[in-house]
Amino acid sequence: MCRSNQWFACKSNISPDDFFFAGLAKPGLTNNTFGATVTLATVQQIKGVNTLGVSMARVDYAPGGINPPHTHPRATEIVFVLEGELVVGFITTENKLFSKTIKKGEIFTFPRGLIHFQINNGKVPAAALAAFNSQLPGTQRVANALFASSPPVDDVVLSKSFQIGTQEVETIKSKFAPKK
């Protein structure tokens, strides 16, 4: 049933539980910096999807909550709105923004590897299911990659790229520094 890959070995004694996950049934907490929580259902949570090329996630948003600009290097994503309304968008490699407001029951697709986002501009909570054509899509948040990498990206690279002073770079980096 399964061919081992470089990350996950196949199990020899499988059971129905290897193909089951209840983690998307309940909303995630949104009382955090972004006002949104992503609950993953990948090969790390469901061993049975190993080598099948599928996974999912549930994203819950408080009013004003955002799933900040990020990319999935190994997957295309399709989002289905369960509740509420989201402004969604992605940016092409030609720096063209494709954005739309989607409501309950509607979907939007983000091509693999492109920077994209979702935000709840509404006054009520929102929720969406995301499906991926990868067992492990990976996620890289743009701001974290630039301002919270280890070792850090040199300030001169950031200040020249964003046309801001090094003091502004340090201010931004401090917002992404791990909490002590």
Description:
The protein has 180 residues and is of the alpha+beta class. It folds into two domains: 27-139, Sandwich (Jelly Rolls), CATH 2.60.120; 148-180, no CATH class. It is built from three helices and ten strands. The chain has helices at 142-147, 155-162, 166-176; strands spanning 36-41, 55-61, 66-71, 77-83, 85-91, 97-103, 107-110, 115-119, 126-132, 140-141. The strands form two sheets. Strands 1-2-9-4-7 form a five-stranded antiparallel sheet, with no helix packed on it. A hairpin with a 5-residue loop joins β5 and β6. α2 packs across α3. It starts with 35 loop residues before the first strand and ends with a helix. The mean pLDDT is 93.
Total E-strand runs: 10
Count up the domains.
Answer: 2
**What is the CATH T-level topology of the largest domain?**
Jelly Rolls
- Kindly state the mean pLDDT as a whole number? 93
How would you characterize the largest beta sheet? 5 strands, antiparallel
Widest sheet: strand ordering: 1-2-9-4-7
Spans of at least 5 consecutive residues whose pLDDT stays below 50 are none
Determine the structural class based on helices, strands and strand pairing.
alpha+beta
Order of helices and strands: EEEEEEEEEEHHH
Mind telling me the CATH class of the largest domain? Mainly Beta
What is the CATH architecture annotation of the largest domain? Sandwich
**Alpha plus pi helix count:** 3
Shape: globular
Proportion of residues in β-strands: 25-35%
What portion of residues is helical? Answer: 10-25%
What is the CATH H-level superfamily of the largest domain? Jelly Rolls
Radius of gyration: 18 Å
Span between termini:
46 Å
Protein name: Germin-like protein
Domain Cupin type-1: 22-170
Catalytic activity: 2 superoxide + 2 H(+) = H2O2 + O2
Function: May interact with bacterial adhesins thereby protecting the reproductive tissues from microbial attack. Has no oxalate oxidase activity.
